[in-house]
Amino acid sequence: MTLAIEVKDLTRRFGDFTAVDAISVDVQVGEVFGFLGANGAGKTTAIKVLIGLLAPTSGSARVAGFDVVTQSEEVRKRIGYMSQRFSLYDDLTPRENITLYGGIYGLSDLDIRARGTAMLSELGLMQVADKLVSTLPLGWKQKLSFSVAMLHRPAVVFLDEPTGGVDPVTRRQFWEMIYAAAARGTTVFVTTHYMDEAEYCDRLSIMVDGRIAAIGTPAALKAEFGVSSIDEVFVRLARPTTAGAG
Amino acid sequence: MRTPERLHALAAFVVKELRHILRDRQTLVILLLLPLAQVVLFGFAIRTDVKDIRLAIVDAAPDDASLALRAHFTGNGRFRVVATAAMIEVIEPLFRRGQADVALVIAPGLARALADGTPAQLQLITDASNPNTGTTIQAYAGAVIGAWQIALPGARQGVVIEPQVRMRFNQSLESVNLFVPGLISLVLTLVTAQMTAISLSREKERGTLEILLVSPLRPWQIILGKVAPYLLLAFANVVTAMVAAWLVFQVPFRGSLALLLAASTLYALVGLALGVLIAARTNSQRTAMMGSMIGTMLPSTLLSGMIFPIASLPWPLQLISNIVPARWFIVIVRGIMLKGAGIVHLWQELLVLAVMLTVLLVVAIKSFRARLA
Ligand SMILES: Nc1ncnc2c1ncn2[C@@H]1O[C@H](COP(=O)(O)OP(=O)(O)O)[C@@H](O)[C@H]1O
Ligand SMILES: [Mg+2]
Hints:
The complex is a heterodimer of chains A (246) and B (373). Chain A is α/β, with parallel strands linked by helices and 246 residues long.
């Protein structure tokens, strides 16, 4: 298996509205793949189809070597997901959240404790390990959320706007965590609308109105459009239809 | 995942649910005290209604004075004389069977005592199983006796009323007895259907349900993990309600406790499945709450025979009452508690609940499978 994600002509409609319009993407194992697009471009919808939360209208997709429709259970065992909304349990502590997800993903109690402690000290969250998550600042919550999604060492992790609303310093740290995950062999599929972050990706695609308008390495894309930043590439692509990134 | 891992995953999920419940102290306290409060409040509200007081009179040697006193009682709209006897032994069984609320015992020689000015003895016996109505009845009876005294020629003094309160097992308090099973069903509906609907739709609203659905947990594990803690709570509530009913109102318990708990489990599962269904079909906590209110609490109160007998409902509502689980459950609980009925008598009602549960489970898991499409 060389491809972590294989998407062919994937379409998802809501009634008459086509949110994802025949997209095709291949992501290599261990890659950090940026999935860019303005608000409403269809990024979240595409991710939800890939992780089995939504059924595709047509086309096919394989994640970690399994078909997302017919082998969704196999897929779910091998992926991590951080949703666009913060979705740890606010009324539980970081440690309790870790225990819960570790248990759900079939880790042993011993593993959960060891990985949990390692994770919390890496994040510098040991002092708040037993405080309610609701009392933590957003940046900490996001980092915790990402680490929890990585707890079971998934083959592929889907991050939907993980750095939304987070300060620049924390964003930087967040990307270090993403690189560390990729270095351990996890494929990272990440959406963002911060164009500076796009430069950190191995490869990226830009989605406009449900279609993939461009795909390639940051350098190749800049060369293709003859511009000096991804931001400019983005503006070129987005201008004909909608205004700017949201 | 292998089976032990599945169980481990389920256990982790149940622990998390328990934490939610234990952490929300206010809701927990309310849910735990609710059955107690409901039984006590409703019980007293029903029983303090003392319009038709059934009076038994013991008059060993009737004379002018005692006949006049009896006339005062018969003339008072609040009392209804159910028996008159010469010996107290005749009254005793009436009391025991609950056909009398109060007994007036007139000592022989009332007229003579009044004429001589010696103390005359009157005894009022009330049932102490409800101190509240007991006192009210005593007060009414005392007022009637007072009126009789004032009407006596020369307004004689010297009548001694000796109130006597006896502990009695009174089977007549049917309203409370019939009401307690209804309350049990209501409390169960609340903690199962309503609480499950709310807690599941909260996960939907906060986005945590997505994370669960993306995990290797299967829909049945999520549902089971979600409802198991509420099932425990439901058990605690049934026991509290029954102990309260028994301690405060001596509501009898004649049948098998095991059968009652088994039936309660069945009914609780029906409620839980309804809760899951409501949560699956609604998009916010608020609508889920409204939905469970209208879809479960109202029918459980109004169409279950708890307050209005089914036979007194207009026929379309009678028809609808057939699909209200509480209607069947109340019959079961009344049968077990009040009549000591066994599974032989109640299998039809139990079967109806079992069928409802099966249908609801299938539909609930199906709408859950539909995910967030
Ligand atoms: N469940 C749904 N029903 C109808 N339309 C939807 C649904 N989910 C998303 N959409 C629409 O699909 C489009 C893409 O949404 P989304 O995938 O969330 O975009 P992005 O994540 O790129 O901001 C939007 O126009 C949105 O309104
Ligand atoms: Mg989105």
